[in-house]
Amino acid sequence: MRETTLVRRNALRNPVRMLLMVGCIAVAFLIFGVLSAVATAFRLEDQPGGHERMMVVNRNGFQQTLPIAYARDVARQPNVAVSSPVRMALVYWRQPKDIVSAVMVEPETYLDLSKDVVKVADEDRARFVATRDGLLVGRALAERYGWKRGDQVTLQSFTDLREDGSRAWRFTVAGIYTAAQPGGSELAMAGHFAYYNEALLTGRDRINWVLVQGRDLAANDAMARTIDAGYANSAAATRTQSEAALGRAFLSQIGDLMLIVRLIVGAAFVVILCVVGNTLIFMVGERTGEIGVLKTLGFSRLRVARIFAGEVALIAVAGAVAGMSVAALIVSALGTALKDVLPGMTMGASTLAMAAGLVALLILLTGILPVLQAGRVNIVEALGRK
Amino acid sequence: MTGSVKQIAAVARIALLGLPSRARMSSATVLSIALATLVLLGFLAMASGFRATVAGTGSDQSAIILAEGSASEFNSAIDTARLARLDNAPGIAAGKNGPLLSAESFATISAVEDGGGESSVTLRGMGPQGLAVRPLARLAGGRMFTPGRNELVVGSALAGRYRDFKLGGSVRLAGMMWRVVGVFEAGGSAMESEVWADRKLVGQFFGSSAAVQSVRARLSEASALALLQRYLAADTSLKLVARSERAYFAAQARNMGKLILFVGWPLGIAMAVGALAGALNTMFTSVSTRSTEIATLRILGFRGPSIFVSTMAEAVLLVLLGSGLGVALAGLFLQGRSASTIGGNLTQVMFKFDLAANDIVQAVTLALIVGVLGGAVPAWRAARRPLVTAAAE
Amino acid sequence: MNFMQRVPAVDNLIDIVDLSKSYRRGSTEVPIFDKLSLSIERGRFVALMGPSGSGKTTLLNLLAGIDRPNSGMLAVDGERIDGYSESGLTQWRANTLGFIFQFYNLMPMLTAAQNVELPLLLHRMSAKERRRRVDTALDVVGLADRARHRPRELSGGQQQRVAIARALVADPKLILADEPTGDLDRPSANAVLEILRLLADELGKTIVMVTHDPVAARAADLTLHLEKGRFVNEAVAA
């Protein structure tokens, strides 16, 4: 037998109460785990390279466009290593409900800039670059629609009209890409900007953003200021930001997502603090006599406190592990179900680290009073020896 | 019968009188129920408020015409060359200067809020009849924009929240100064989160003049929608579809409201399960601290059912207190609170939290379920416990 | 009484000189002892009797180091404990003392063997050595076959014997017992007394036992009568 035996036996002596406490803690961690995974998926900053890659967008938002000429101007900035213009295209295949997210790009520079997000085999890359009406398609998307390399597909655009008045665009599937990171989206596609642009009636020679990789990361901010200053008084003023900052700014408009998450997680933790804290205090009260016996046997205040702290920790860790495990299951199920809407939903290391921190905090906050109380038990009073 | 009612009342009274002595455990339960109720109500009120705002944007006196296959303005485009063919469409009300039609396109603009932050709002370009095709909207101050001039009319929700959109002020957009010449109201609907300007200017400076996204039409009467729909369906080269504004916005509201509820209910239920664990714990503790009292009562001749009911009464009282507190907190801090989120156009929509009676009923019901579940097991145990064990403890 | 023959030289385990103790109850000071003195020789089995409020429980508390005197000297085996801090006393109890309670006070979630082993957690000792000692202690009290039982599976007398094994296992110099037979029927009480007698006779333990039971007192080498904080059989007290 060890002191831990005592801790374990103590925790298990009222299994119903133990389960209720563990359950209560598990629920709070479940809420935390799922919400953080969702919040992480929402923040693009976790995309590899998201902090280094810059985007030049219209000051009014990425839904608005910039003249293609901006891409050439930006490329001449001294700090720019690689830059690439991107146009969004809202298209569907066969039925309007099968909306596909597509970008029309300058293939070589775009792939150079995206190599830590997407993985493309060399021959696919070469074929995509060389095929004027070529499409580079995400693996999951290609599987969904049964597309193979060499297939001809006709996509319909929602908002872009062709000069001939139609909305139909013929493409050839030139290559398939996979996500460079597990959980990354494979549901998008890229085509050639030049091919798309030449047929446009509306919005010809307009792009949604310019992707930029700086030579010197430290000079990125200065570069952004120079670019934006140059267009400040033109019809399309720009805003140059890192991909991550842009994503955050956009999401902040949904409502302060992180704030809501924090409030809810906070509420859940207040609930367990109350419930578990009180139960533990009650438990110490119930075991006052036993604590008196242990102290009579020569168990020091510290040891008694340690045995109780061990029990609190056991309960908290059991609850956290249970909660995070169920959260992981739910996150993986949600991640599969919402792959199209919200790719990249995984339980990351940062979430786990935060969970560990929360466990520690929980142990401290719920444990401190009962542990102190247990340590302070007076033998004479505890055993009614007066 | 009256005898057992009296018994129950007597035992319940004893149980409830003992509540203060178990104050800490009991208040933990009350608080956890209150927080669970509050979280659920927050989402329900958000969904109700958002739905009311978006759904309130539509009238059945007006129709919205979109490109075939497009579910919303956001992904619709109509070639301007086809617009003239709508002038002779049936079912559209006539105004002084021809049929009440407004071809519209929108753009996103970034605007500075009172607090200094920036966010995206919808700039809607509309024809001269833009106000006339919207039965719900009316000018609350200033005047309508003059076609061809850089003038803006802003929704009252924006005017109240954005530094850039004060009546008489001006704002720089697309490299030019624009004057805010009017403010409109639209019954608190999502329309009030828009900025209006001349469609031709919006097309020229913010997008494309070659296409618009939708056409609004004032119907001669609500039933005239069918005429318009038949006319559009008959001309297959038009590829346009008309819907009543009310139906269009109701559908949009449903989708967004659903998303909020899709998040809110699981969270509310998870919180309730946590609170249930707390309630069970409290009731088990209550029963165990009262075990001598309960045994004494039973030896005195009180029957099991009265013990059961009195313990349940304690649990139900606790959750009612908790959910009452939750509702009160929600009423105090959430009701009427303005919030904004991203709407269908990926721009800001202002709305108010709206605690509907139905939301309160749902949240209190959830709490009561927690109370009944949390009370039943401990109450059952208390009532069934063999006397000898109970008295010995 | 034949202890004189077995203990050739006077060798005190307990020395109490001018010990005073009082409690505050509200605003009044309630004196328990005033300048009490007592010595108990090593290896003796002493019974302490007296009516309620006579101070016998307080005296046992002081001897056990779970309560502290207001003044006076209290030494066990030549070690003065009256000035010890709480943590000093805790340490001292772990090394010197075995305690037997009226209501056994076993840990309900531990087996008999684990209950006996409990004090050994406070000593640096191999698992093997611990098991040997637990086995021996359970053997002494005749419960080797009940090692894996939980307290609620044991009778009162058996529980008290487990408690004795627990008091014995760390090989303490002094064993204190607080009405160890108070909650037991006659046969169980006799078994417990027999074991205590054995501890004194065979293992040379010094035992101080508070009791109300004259039969129990008769098992001891001598009986001290305490009344209103004084010994009434002065002749026996040192």
UniProtKB/TrEMBL annotation, chain A:
InterPro entries per record: ABC-4/HrtB_transporter, ABC3_permease_C, MacB_PCD
Membrane topology: Multi-pass membrane protein
Localisation: Cell membrane
Domain ABC3 transporter permease C-terminal: 264-378
An annotated GO cellular component: plasma membrane
Regions crossing the membrane: 20-42, 259-284, 305-331, 351-372
Identification of the protein by name: FtsX-like permease family protein
Superkingdom of this protein's organism: Bacteria
Species, as recorded: Sphingomonas gei
Keyword Cell membrane: yes
Keywords, comma-separated and alphabetical: Cell membrane, Membrane, Transmembrane, Transmembrane helix
Domain MacB-like periplasmic core: 23-227
TrEMBL record, chain B:
Compartments where located: Cell membrane
Record keyword Disulfide bond present: no
Domain ABC3 transporter permease C-terminal residue range list: 269-386
Domain MacB-like periplasmic core span(s) in chain numbering: 27-229
GO molecular function annotation: transmembrane transporter activity
Keywords (A to Z) from UniProt: Cell membrane, Membrane, Transmembrane, Transmembrane helix
One cellular-component annotation, GO: plasma membrane
Membrane topology of the entry: Multi-pass membrane protein
Annotated transmembrane regions: 33-54, 259-280, 315-334, 355-377
PANTHER family xrefs: ABC TRANSPORTER PERMEASE (PTHR30572:SF15), MEMBRANE COMPONENT OF TRANSPORTER-RELATED (PTHR30572)
Protein name: ABC transporter permease
Organism: Sphingomonas gei
